[in-house]
Amino acid sequence: MKVPCVSPVLPETYPGHAHAQRTTGKRLYLINPCNALVSIVSTEGSRWNRYRVWKPLGLMVLAGLTPSEWEVTIIDENLRLPDYATLPRPDLVGITAFTSQANRAYEVATLFRRLGVPVVMGGIHATVCANEAMGAADAIVTGEAEKVWAQVLADVEQGCLQRRYDGGQADMNEVPIARHDLAPEGYAFGSIQTTRGCPLNCSFCSVTAVNGVQYRQRPIADVVEEFRAIPERRILVVDDNLIGTRREHTQRARELFRALADADLGKQWICQVTINFSDDDELMELAVKAGCKGVFVGFESSAPEGLAEVGKRFNLLHDRDLRASVRRIQRHRIMVVGSFIIGLDVDQPGVGIRVAKMATKYGVDHLNALFLTPLPGTRLWDQLERDDRLGSNEFPADWKYYTLTLPVAEYLNFSRDEISEEMLACNRRFYSLSRILHRLWHSTFHRRAPIMGLVAALSCRGAIPQESRAYASFIRSHKRQPPAQARVAS
Protein backbone atom coordinates (compact mmCIF):
# COMPACT_ATOMS: atom_id res chain seq x y z
CA MET A 1 0.00 0.00 0.00
CA LYS A 2 1.33 3.44 -0.94
CA VAL A 3 1.39 6.41 1.37
CA PRO A 4 -0.36 9.60 0.24
CA CYS A 5 1.56 11.57 -2.35
CA VAL A 6 3.81 14.22 -0.86
CA SER A 7 5.43 16.91 -2.97
CA PRO A 8 7.48 19.06 -0.60
CA VAL A 9 8.91 22.39 -1.68
CA LEU A 10 12.67 21.80 -1.63
CA PRO A 11 15.44 24.36 -1.29
CA GLU A 12 17.44 24.71 -4.48
CA THR A 13 20.81 24.56 -2.69
CA TYR A 14 22.22 23.80 0.70
CA PRO A 15 22.91 26.61 3.15
CA GLY A 16 26.24 28.18 2.26
CA HIS A 17 25.87 27.35 -1.43
CA ALA A 18 23.25 29.89 -2.38
CA HIS A 19 24.63 30.46 -5.87
CA ALA A 20 24.88 26.82 -6.95
CA GLN A 21 22.76 25.96 -9.98
CA ARG A 22 20.75 22.81 -10.62
CA THR A 23 21.81 20.53 -13.44
CA THR A 24 19.46 19.01 -15.99
CA GLY A 25 17.71 15.87 -14.77
CA LYS A 26 17.55 14.47 -11.25
CA ARG A 27 20.37 14.14 -8.76
CA LEU A 28 20.94 11.01 -6.65
CA TYR A 29 23.44 10.60 -3.82
CA LEU A 30 24.31 7.05 -2.82
CA ILE A 31 26.08 7.17 0.54
CA ASN A 32 28.17 4.61 2.43
CA PRO A 33 28.35 5.98 6.02
CA CYS A 34 31.42 5.68 8.20
CA ASN A 35 31.82 4.66 11.81
CA ALA A 36 34.02 7.19 13.58
CA LEU A 37 34.91 4.66 16.29
CA VAL A 38 36.68 2.38 13.84
CA SER A 39 39.68 4.60 13.29
CA ILE A 40 41.66 1.78 11.67
CA VAL A 41 39.30 1.96 8.68
CA SER A 42 39.70 5.66 7.86
CA THR A 43 42.25 6.15 5.10
CA GLU A 44 43.27 9.45 6.65
CA GLY A 45 44.59 7.68 9.76
CA SER A 46 47.43 5.74 8.13
CA ARG A 47 48.84 5.11 4.68
CA TRP A 48 48.32 1.39 5.29
CA ASN A 49 44.58 1.72 5.90
CA ARG A 50 43.72 2.10 2.22
CA TYR A 51 44.50 -1.61 1.98
CA ARG A 52 41.73 -2.31 4.52
CA VAL A 53 38.89 -0.29 2.96
CA TRP A 54 36.59 -1.96 0.44
CA LYS A 55 34.45 -0.29 -2.18
CA PRO A 56 30.68 0.05 -1.44
CA LEU A 57 29.81 -2.50 -4.12
CA GLY A 58 26.08 -2.55 -3.33
CA LEU A 59 25.82 1.16 -4.10
CA MET A 60 27.75 0.67 -7.33
CA VAL A 61 25.26 -2.02 -8.36
CA LEU A 62 22.36 0.35 -7.60
CA ALA A 63 24.07 2.97 -9.76
CA GLY A 64 24.14 0.41 -12.57
CA LEU A 65 20.37 -0.01 -12.21
CA THR A 66 19.68 3.74 -12.26
CA PRO A 67 18.38 5.28 -15.52
CA SER A 68 20.63 7.72 -17.34
CA GLU A 69 18.39 10.71 -16.60
CA TRP A 70 19.60 10.51 -12.98
CA GLU A 71 22.91 12.11 -12.14
CA VAL A 72 24.47 9.65 -9.67
CA THR A 73 27.17 10.46 -7.11
CA ILE A 74 28.62 7.75 -4.84
CA ILE A 75 29.93 9.05 -1.52
CA ASP A 76 32.04 6.79 0.72
CA GLU A 77 32.63 8.38 4.10
CA ASN A 78 35.27 5.76 4.88
CA LEU A 79 37.60 7.44 2.41
CA ARG A 80 36.87 10.98 3.54
CA LEU A 81 34.04 12.79 5.26
CA PRO A 82 32.36 15.31 2.95
CA ASP A 83 30.92 18.66 3.93
CA TYR A 84 27.35 18.01 2.84
CA ALA A 85 26.43 21.66 3.31
CA THR A 86 28.65 22.59 0.36
CA LEU A 87 27.24 19.99 -2.04
CA PRO A 88 24.41 20.61 -4.51
CA ARG A 89 21.00 19.51 -3.27
CA PRO A 90 20.00 16.01 -4.42
CA ASP A 91 16.50 14.89 -5.34
CA LEU A 92 17.01 11.57 -3.56
CA VAL A 93 19.48 10.07 -1.11
CA GLY A 94 20.09 6.32 -0.83
CA ILE A 95 22.02 5.04 2.19
CA THR A 96 23.33 1.54 2.82
CA ALA A 97 24.48 0.33 6.23
CA PHE A 98 25.91 -2.60 8.06
CA THR A 99 24.83 -2.71 11.70
CA SER A 100 27.97 -0.87 12.85
CA GLN A 101 27.17 1.95 10.42
CA ALA A 102 23.55 2.36 11.51
CA ASN A 103 24.09 5.33 13.86
CA ARG A 104 25.93 7.35 11.26
CA ALA A 105 23.37 6.31 8.63
CA TYR A 106 20.61 7.73 10.82
CA GLU A 107 22.57 10.99 11.30
CA VAL A 108 23.03 11.43 7.55
CA ALA A 109 19.39 10.57 6.91
CA THR A 110 18.27 13.18 9.45
CA LEU A 111 20.47 15.82 7.85
CA PHE A 112 18.89 15.38 4.42
CA ARG A 113 15.32 14.85 5.65
CA ARG A 114 15.47 18.17 7.49
CA LEU A 115 16.15 19.75 4.12
CA GLY A 116 13.12 18.02 2.64
CA VAL A 117 15.15 15.50 0.63
CA PRO A 118 13.62 11.99 0.62
CA VAL A 119 15.90 9.30 2.02
CA VAL A 120 15.79 5.58 1.21
CA MET A 121 17.78 3.20 3.41
CA GLY A 122 18.79 -0.36 2.58
CA GLY A 123 21.43 -2.96 3.33
CA ILE A 124 21.80 -5.61 6.01
CA HIS A 125 20.77 -3.49 9.00
CA ALA A 126 17.62 -2.13 7.37
CA THR A 127 16.69 -5.72 6.50
CA VAL A 128 17.13 -7.24 9.96
CA CYS A 129 16.01 -4.15 11.93
CA ALA A 130 13.33 -2.91 9.57
CA ASN A 131 11.07 -1.18 12.10
CA GLU A 132 13.95 0.76 13.59
CA ALA A 133 15.27 1.82 10.18
CA MET A 134 11.81 2.97 9.05
CA GLY A 135 11.84 5.45 11.90
CA ALA A 136 14.96 7.08 10.47
CA ALA A 137 14.20 7.13 6.74
CA ASP A 138 11.32 7.96 4.42
CA ALA A 139 11.51 4.44 3.00
CA ILE A 140 13.53 1.27 3.42
CA VAL A 141 14.48 -1.54 1.06
CA THR A 142 14.82 -4.95 2.67
CA GLY A 143 16.64 -7.89 1.12
CA GLU A 144 18.29 -7.43 -2.27
CA ALA A 145 17.32 -4.25 -4.10
CA GLU A 146 17.53 -5.30 -7.76
CA LYS A 147 13.81 -6.19 -8.10
CA VAL A 148 12.47 -2.99 -6.56
CA TRP A 149 14.94 -0.18 -7.31
CA ALA A 150 13.16 0.89 -10.52
CA GLN A 151 9.91 1.14 -8.56
CA VAL A 152 11.59 3.21 -5.85
CA LEU A 153 12.83 5.72 -8.41
CA ALA A 154 9.47 5.84 -10.17
CA ASP A 155 7.67 6.49 -6.88
CA VAL A 156 10.12 9.26 -5.99
CA GLU A 157 9.44 10.96 -9.31
CA GLN A 158 5.68 10.77 -8.68
CA GLY A 159 6.02 11.94 -5.06
CA CYS A 160 4.47 8.68 -3.81
CA LEU A 161 7.32 6.95 -2.04
CA GLN A 162 6.22 3.84 -0.17
CA ARG A 163 7.40 3.18 3.37
CA ARG A 164 8.86 -0.24 2.61
CA TYR A 165 10.00 -2.20 -0.42
CA ASP A 166 10.75 -5.90 -0.01
CA GLY A 167 13.35 -6.93 -2.56
CA GLY A 168 13.66 -10.57 -1.52
CA GLN A 169 16.27 -12.45 -3.51
CA ALA A 170 17.33 -11.16 -6.90
CA ASP A 171 17.48 -13.10 -10.15
CA MET A 172 21.24 -13.30 -10.64
CA ASN A 173 20.77 -12.97 -14.41
CA GLU A 174 19.44 -9.46 -13.79
CA VAL A 175 22.25 -8.17 -11.57
CA PRO A 176 23.88 -5.40 -13.62
CA ILE A 177 27.54 -4.66 -13.99
CA ALA A 178 28.42 -2.32 -11.14
CA ARG A 179 29.33 1.29 -11.98
CA HIS A 180 33.01 1.08 -11.12
CA ASP A 181 33.55 4.33 -13.00
CA LEU A 182 31.52 6.19 -10.35
CA ALA A 183 33.45 4.93 -7.33
CA PRO A 184 35.60 7.55 -5.60
CA GLU A 185 39.36 7.35 -6.01
CA GLY A 186 41.61 6.11 -3.22
CA TYR A 187 41.02 2.37 -2.95
CA ALA A 188 43.84 -0.15 -3.16
CA PHE A 189 41.44 -2.89 -4.30
CA GLY A 190 38.54 -3.11 -6.69
CA SER A 191 35.64 -5.40 -5.77
CA ILE A 192 33.18 -7.73 -7.46
CA GLN A 193 30.48 -10.24 -6.47
CA THR A 194 29.86 -13.41 -8.48
CA THR A 195 27.58 -15.42 -6.13
CA ARG A 196 25.15 -14.85 -3.26
CA GLY A 197 23.90 -17.03 -0.44
CA CYS A 198 25.66 -19.55 1.77
CA PRO A 199 24.43 -23.03 2.73
CA LEU A 200 26.56 -23.27 5.90
CA ASN A 201 24.31 -20.99 8.00
CA CYS A 202 26.85 -20.40 10.80
CA SER A 203 25.32 -19.12 14.04
CA PHE A 204 27.23 -15.80 14.00
CA CYS A 205 26.67 -14.89 10.34
CA SER A 206 23.82 -12.77 8.97
CA VAL A 207 24.35 -13.77 5.33
CA THR A 208 21.59 -16.36 5.49
CA ALA A 209 19.10 -13.83 6.89
CA VAL A 210 19.71 -11.48 3.96
CA ASN A 211 20.84 -13.62 1.02
CA GLY A 212 19.46 -17.03 1.98
CA VAL A 213 20.98 -20.52 2.05
CA GLN A 214 20.61 -21.14 -1.68
CA TYR A 215 23.90 -20.72 -3.52
CA ARG A 216 23.15 -18.48 -6.51
CA GLN A 217 25.56 -17.58 -9.32
CA ARG A 218 25.82 -14.73 -11.80
CA PRO A 219 26.33 -15.61 -15.48
CA ILE A 220 30.02 -16.17 -16.12
CA ALA A 221 30.07 -13.85 -19.14
CA ASP A 222 28.76 -10.98 -16.97
CA VAL A 223 31.42 -11.64 -14.35
CA VAL A 224 34.23 -11.59 -16.92
CA GLU A 225 32.90 -8.37 -18.44
CA GLU A 226 32.76 -6.73 -15.01
CA PHE A 227 36.28 -7.89 -14.16
CA ARG A 228 37.37 -6.12 -17.32
CA ALA A 229 35.56 -2.92 -16.27
CA ILE A 230 37.30 -2.66 -12.87
CA PRO A 231 40.10 -0.07 -13.07
CA GLU A 232 42.16 -1.50 -10.18
CA ARG A 233 44.61 -4.30 -10.90
CA ARG A 234 43.99 -5.94 -7.51
CA ILE A 235 40.45 -7.06 -6.74
CA LEU A 236 38.52 -8.46 -3.78
CA VAL A 237 35.88 -11.00 -4.72
CA VAL A 238 33.31 -10.36 -1.99
CA ASP A 239 31.39 -13.64 -2.33
CA ASP A 240 30.88 -15.25 1.07
CA ASN A 241 32.13 -18.49 -0.47
CA LEU A 242 33.34 -18.30 -4.06
CA ILE A 243 33.57 -22.06 -4.61
CA GLY A 244 30.53 -23.27 -2.65
CA THR A 245 30.29 -26.59 -0.86
CA ARG A 246 28.88 -29.03 -3.44
CA ARG A 247 30.22 -30.60 -6.61
CA GLU A 248 28.06 -28.49 -8.91
CA HIS A 249 29.27 -25.37 -7.10
CA THR A 250 32.94 -26.16 -7.64
CA GLN A 251 32.25 -27.09 -11.26
CA ARG A 252 30.84 -23.63 -11.83
CA ALA A 253 33.96 -22.17 -10.16
CA ARG A 254 36.15 -24.13 -12.59
CA GLU A 255 34.23 -22.72 -15.54
CA LEU A 256 34.54 -19.19 -14.17
CA PHE A 257 38.28 -19.55 -13.60
CA ARG A 258 38.78 -20.92 -17.14
CA ALA A 259 36.88 -17.97 -18.59
CA LEU A 260 38.91 -15.46 -16.59
CA ALA A 261 42.17 -17.14 -17.59
CA ASP A 262 41.14 -17.13 -21.26
CA ALA A 263 40.26 -13.43 -21.03
CA ASP A 264 43.83 -12.73 -19.82
CA LEU A 265 42.86 -9.52 -18.02
CA GLY A 266 46.04 -9.17 -15.97
CA LYS A 267 44.06 -8.91 -12.71
CA GLN A 268 45.13 -10.26 -9.32
CA TRP A 269 42.40 -11.15 -6.86
CA ILE A 270 41.66 -12.53 -3.42
CA CYS A 271 38.47 -14.24 -2.27
CA GLN A 272 36.71 -16.13 0.52
CA VAL A 273 36.48 -19.92 0.33
CA THR A 274 35.81 -22.90 2.54
CA ILE A 275 38.68 -25.25 3.31
CA ASN A 276 37.47 -27.79 0.72
CA PHE A 277 39.22 -25.54 -1.81
CA SER A 278 42.37 -27.46 -0.87
CA ASP A 279 40.89 -30.79 -1.99
CA ASP A 280 40.94 -30.04 -5.72
CA ASP A 281 44.30 -29.42 -7.41
CA GLU A 282 42.69 -28.69 -10.76
CA LEU A 283 40.46 -26.05 -9.17
CA MET A 284 43.44 -24.39 -7.50
CA GLU A 285 45.52 -24.48 -10.69
CA LEU A 286 42.70 -22.84 -12.63
CA ALA A 287 42.27 -20.22 -9.89
CA VAL A 288 45.95 -19.29 -10.15
CA LYS A 289 45.75 -19.02 -13.94
CA ALA A 290 42.73 -16.74 -13.47
CA GLY A 291 44.72 -14.44 -11.14
CA CYS A 292 44.02 -15.75 -7.63
CA LYS A 293 46.67 -14.59 -5.15
CA GLY A 294 45.04 -15.26 -1.81
CA VAL A 295 42.07 -16.81 -0.01
CA PHE A 296 40.30 -16.08 3.28
CA VAL A 297 39.38 -19.27 5.15
CA GLY A 298 37.10 -19.28 8.18
CA PHE A 299 38.72 -21.60 10.74
CA GLU A 300 36.71 -19.89 13.52
CA SER A 301 38.04 -22.08 16.35
CA SER A 302 40.91 -24.47 16.90
CA ALA A 303 38.70 -26.72 19.06
CA PRO A 304 36.06 -29.14 17.72
CA GLU A 305 33.77 -27.95 20.52
CA GLY A 306 34.16 -24.38 19.27
CA LEU A 307 33.27 -25.38 15.71
CA ALA A 308 30.20 -27.17 17.00
CA GLU A 309 29.24 -24.07 19.01
CA VAL A 310 29.19 -21.81 15.94
CA GLY A 311 27.71 -24.42 13.59
CA LYS A 312 30.88 -24.82 11.46
CA ARG A 313 31.15 -28.61 11.58
CA PHE A 314 32.00 -28.46 7.86
CA ASN A 315 35.65 -27.97 8.87
CA LEU A 316 35.60 -31.31 10.69
CA LEU A 317 34.39 -33.44 7.78
CA HIS A 318 36.55 -36.36 6.64
CA ASP A 319 38.90 -36.02 9.64
CA ARG A 320 40.57 -33.13 7.86
CA ASP A 321 44.21 -32.24 8.58
CA LEU A 322 43.96 -28.45 8.47
CA ARG A 323 47.72 -27.91 8.40
CA ALA A 324 48.01 -30.19 5.37
CA SER A 325 45.06 -28.44 3.71
CA VAL A 326 46.74 -25.04 4.11
CA ARG A 327 50.00 -26.43 2.72
CA ARG A 328 48.20 -27.79 -0.37
CA ILE A 329 46.77 -24.34 -1.10
CA GLN A 330 50.12 -22.64 -0.57
CA ARG A 331 51.90 -25.06 -2.91
CA HIS A 332 49.95 -23.32 -5.66
CA ARG A 333 51.49 -19.99 -4.56
CA ILE A 334 48.22 -18.81 -3.01
CA MET A 335 48.29 -16.91 0.30
CA VAL A 336 46.01 -18.16 3.07
CA VAL A 337 44.38 -15.77 5.55
CA GLY A 338 42.93 -17.59 8.54
CA SER A 339 39.93 -16.12 10.35
CA PHE A 340 39.33 -17.00 14.03
CA ILE A 341 36.77 -15.94 16.64
CA ILE A 342 37.77 -15.11 20.23
CA GLY A 343 35.16 -15.19 23.00
CA LEU A 344 33.33 -18.46 22.39
CA ASP A 345 31.76 -20.13 25.40
CA VAL A 346 34.33 -22.93 25.11
CA ASP A 347 37.23 -20.46 25.22
CA GLN A 348 39.32 -20.31 28.39
CA PRO A 349 41.96 -17.83 29.63
CA GLY A 350 44.99 -17.94 27.35
CA VAL A 351 42.86 -18.34 24.22
CA GLY A 352 44.57 -15.40 22.50
CA ILE A 353 47.98 -17.03 22.58
CA ARG A 354 46.45 -20.41 21.67
CA VAL A 355 44.79 -18.92 18.58
CA ALA A 356 48.07 -17.29 17.51
CA LYS A 357 49.92 -20.57 18.03
CA MET A 358 47.27 -22.54 16.15
CA ALA A 359 47.35 -20.08 13.23
CA THR A 360 51.13 -20.51 13.16
CA LYS A 361 50.78 -24.29 13.34
CA TYR A 362 48.34 -24.28 10.43
CA GLY A 363 50.90 -22.16 8.58
CA VAL A 364 48.54 -19.37 7.50
CA ASP A 365 50.14 -16.30 5.99
CA HIS A 366 47.87 -13.92 7.88
CA LEU A 367 45.55 -14.01 10.85
CA ASN A 368 42.21 -12.23 11.13
CA ALA A 369 40.99 -12.58 14.73
CA LEU A 370 37.61 -11.11 15.68
CA PHE A 371 35.52 -10.91 18.84
CA LEU A 372 32.44 -13.09 19.00
CA THR A 373 29.80 -10.52 18.07
CA PRO A 374 26.03 -11.12 18.17
CA LEU A 375 24.65 -9.42 15.06
CA PRO A 376 20.89 -8.95 14.71
CA GLY A 377 19.34 -11.53 12.42
CA THR A 378 21.66 -14.34 13.55
CA ARG A 379 21.06 -17.35 15.76
CA LEU A 380 23.84 -16.07 18.02
CA TRP A 381 21.90 -12.84 18.57
CA ASP A 382 18.77 -14.77 19.47
CA GLN A 383 20.69 -16.91 21.94
CA LEU A 384 22.53 -14.07 23.71
CA GLU A 385 19.46 -11.84 23.78
CA ARG A 386 17.50 -14.70 25.36
CA ASP A 387 20.27 -15.21 27.93
CA ASP A 388 20.58 -11.46 28.66
CA ARG A 389 24.18 -11.44 27.44
CA LEU A 390 24.11 -8.47 25.09
CA GLY A 391 26.67 -6.37 26.90
CA SER A 392 26.12 -3.27 24.76
CA ASN A 393 22.34 -3.12 24.55
CA GLU A 394 21.28 0.53 24.46
CA PHE A 395 19.89 0.61 20.94
CA PRO A 396 20.15 2.25 18.54
CA ALA A 397 22.98 4.17 20.25
CA ASP A 398 25.13 1.08 20.81
CA TRP A 399 25.06 -0.18 17.23
CA LYS A 400 28.24 1.79 16.58
CA TYR A 401 30.13 -0.71 18.74
CA TYR A 402 29.07 -3.76 16.69
CA THR A 403 32.13 -3.68 14.45
CA LEU A 404 33.41 -7.22 15.23
CA THR A 405 36.47 -5.45 16.65
CA LEU A 406 35.03 -4.55 20.08
CA PRO A 407 33.85 -6.88 22.91
CA VAL A 408 30.13 -6.05 22.88
CA ALA A 409 28.84 -9.33 24.38
CA GLU A 410 28.93 -10.74 27.90
CA TYR A 411 31.53 -13.49 27.53
CA LEU A 412 31.14 -16.60 29.61
CA ASN A 413 34.70 -16.80 30.90
CA PHE A 414 36.03 -13.26 30.46
CA SER A 415 35.39 -9.70 31.54
CA ARG A 416 35.73 -7.03 28.89
CA ASP A 417 39.23 -6.18 30.10
CA GLU A 418 40.25 -9.82 29.98
CA ILE A 419 38.88 -10.56 26.51
CA SER A 420 40.52 -7.38 25.17
CA GLU A 421 43.88 -8.49 26.55
CA GLU A 422 43.40 -11.89 24.90
CA MET A 423 42.89 -10.21 21.52
CA LEU A 424 45.92 -7.97 21.93
CA ALA A 425 48.06 -10.92 23.00
CA CYS A 426 46.94 -12.83 19.94
CA ASN A 427 47.81 -10.06 17.49
CA ARG A 428 51.05 -9.08 19.19
CA ARG A 429 52.32 -12.63 19.03
CA PHE A 430 51.27 -13.41 15.47
CA TYR A 431 52.35 -10.02 14.11
CA SER A 432 55.62 -9.70 15.99
CA LEU A 433 58.34 -8.37 13.72
CA SER A 434 60.33 -11.60 13.86
CA ARG A 435 57.32 -13.69 12.83
CA ILE A 436 56.43 -11.27 10.02
CA LEU A 437 59.98 -11.56 8.67
CA HIS A 438 59.90 -15.35 9.00
CA ARG A 439 56.67 -15.58 7.01
CA LEU A 440 58.00 -13.06 4.47
CA TRP A 441 61.04 -15.27 3.87
CA HIS A 442 58.80 -18.28 3.26
CA SER A 443 56.41 -16.43 0.95
CA THR A 444 59.35 -14.98 -1.01
CA PHE A 445 61.07 -18.36 -1.31
CA HIS A 446 57.84 -19.97 -2.53
CA ARG A 447 56.86 -16.94 -4.67
CA ARG A 448 53.58 -16.44 -2.82
CA ALA A 449 52.85 -12.71 -3.39
CA PRO A 450 55.44 -11.52 -0.82
CA ILE A 451 54.91 -7.80 -1.40
CA MET A 452 51.15 -8.01 -0.98
CA GLY A 453 51.70 -10.16 2.10
CA LEU A 454 54.17 -7.74 3.65
CA VAL A 455 51.84 -4.78 3.14
CA ALA A 456 48.98 -6.67 4.78
CA ALA A 457 51.14 -7.76 7.72
CA LEU A 458 52.48 -4.26 8.34
CA SER A 459 48.95 -2.89 8.16
CA CYS A 460 47.80 -5.33 10.84
CA ARG A 461 50.85 -4.72 13.01
CA GLY A 462 50.45 -0.95 12.68
CA ALA A 463 46.82 -1.17 13.79
CA ILE A 464 47.60 -2.83 17.15
CA PRO A 465 48.26 0.42 19.11
CA GLN A 466 45.03 1.89 17.69
CA GLU A 467 43.16 -1.26 18.68
CA SER A 468 44.53 -1.05 22.21
CA ARG A 469 43.35 2.55 22.55
CA ALA A 470 39.96 1.65 21.09
CA TYR A 471 39.50 -1.17 23.64
CA ALA A 472 40.46 1.11 26.53
CA SER A 473 38.07 3.83 25.38
CA PHE A 474 35.25 1.34 24.88
CA ILE A 475 35.73 -0.22 28.32
CA ARG A 476 35.85 3.19 30.01
CA SER A 477 32.50 4.06 28.44
CA HIS A 478 30.86 0.87 29.73
CA LYS A 479 30.31 -0.46 33.19
CA ARG A 480 32.95 -3.01 34.01
CA GLN A 481 31.57 -6.35 35.05
CA PRO A 482 33.08 -9.72 36.02
CA PRO A 483 32.68 -12.70 33.71
CA ALA A 484 29.09 -13.80 33.25
CA GLN A 485 29.86 -17.21 34.78
CA ALA A 486 31.11 -15.58 37.97
CA ARG A 487 28.04 -13.37 38.19
CA VAL A 488 25.79 -16.42 37.89
CA ALA A 489 27.79 -18.20 40.57
CA SER A 490 27.45 -15.25 42.94
Keywords:
490 residues; alpha/beta; Rossmann fold; pyruvate-formate lyase- activating enzyme; 2 domains; 17 helices; 14 strands; disordered N terminus
Structure commentary:
By secondary structure, this protein is α/β, with parallel strands linked by helices. It folds into 2 domains: 26-166, Rossmann fold; 189-476, pyruvate-formate lyase- activating enzyme, CATH 3.80.30.20. 37% of the residues lie in helices and 14% in strands. The chain is built from 17 helices and 14 strands. It has helices spanning 57-65, 102-114, 124-128, 130-134, 149-158, 207-211, 220-229, 247-263, 281-290, 304-310, 322-330, 351-362, 379-386, 416-430, 433-445, 450-476, 484-489, and strands at residues 26-32, 70-76, 92-96, 119-122, 139-142, 164-166, 190-192, 195-196, 216-217, 234-237, 268-273, 292-300, 335-342, 366-371. The strands form 3 sheets. It has a 6-stranded parallel β-sheet, sandwiched between helices. Helix 12 links the parallel strand 13 and strand 14 (366-371). Helix 7 crosses helix 8 and helix 14 runs antiparallel to helix 16 (450-476). The radius of gyration is 23 Å and the shape is globular. The N and C termini lie far apart (53 Å).
